[in-house]
Amino acid sequence: MKQYKIFVTGKQGIFDPAGETARHALDNLGYIGIENLRIDKYIQLDTSDTVTAEMVKEMCEKLLANPVIEDFLIEETVMTVAEEAAEQTKAEADE
Amino acid sequence: MKQYKIFVTGKQGIFDPAGETARHALDNLGYIGIENLRIDKYIQLDTSDTVTAEMVKEMCEKLLANPVIEDFLIEETVMTVAEEAAEQTKAEADE
């Protein structure tokens, strides 16, 4: 199994209303020293071993990100059999 | 300046409609081997040096995450003066 972490972030200069609203709300709660706050997307994709990083890039370009206003960064993690088993056990324990 | 990266993710068992929709759309586009897809929030927070990780945790609990249905993970990066200058130059070049 492979795990991809994809960070989809607004391009420089694109307004981020959610981030701006959160920043104002933090100001109103009395937090000082916040210089910048952006809220973007964090996608976790679990795939079979046949899915390559190149395919994930294509998925981002076609569907997961909007290339006009968003950039994306893909991080790949290949899970070992032991890690997969641990993950499985954890998921079962959580249920 | 400090930079915090905050990952706000749905708790185990909480339905993620955006992720589910994207997964179906990828299926329809002909991608096979997608086992799981979650879309969560990735928050980048730039603050002055006075803002501590403890304060950021409090901000998450109060405002940035919903502790009933979401978990959060905070990563702290302290930027050196040189990195800050590089960031500044980059931001100016992008404008």
What labels describe this entry?
homodimer; 95 residues; alpha+beta; Mth169, Chain: A; three-stranded antiparallel beta sheet; 3 strands; 40% helix; flat
Structural class of chain A: alpha+beta
Major sheet of chain A, described briefly? Answer: 3 strands, antiparallel
CATH topology of chain A: Mth169, Chain: A
| The named CATH superfamily of chain A | Phosphoribosylformylglycinamidine synthase subunit PurS
Q: What is the total number of structural domains of chain A?
A: 1
CATH top-level class of chain A: Alpha Beta
- How would you classify the quaternary structure? homodimer
Q: Estimate the global geometry of chain A from the Cα principal axes.
A: flat
Q: Give the DSSP E fraction of chain A (strand runs of 2 or more residues).
A: 25-35%
Provide a count of the helices of chain A.
Answer: 3
Show unreliable segments of chain A.
none
Helix content range of the residues of chain A, please? 40-55%
Distance between the termini of chain A: 21 Å
The Rg value of chain A, from CA coordinates, equals 18 Å
CATH architecture of chain A: 2-Layer Sandwich
Mean pLDDT of chain A: 91
Strand order of the main beta sheet of chain A, please?
2-1-3
Order of helices and strands of chain A: EHEHEH
Question: Largest interface here, residues on each chain?
Answer: A-B, 39 and 39 residues
Instruction: Give a count of the beta strands of chain A, DSSP E runs of length 2 or more.
Output: 3
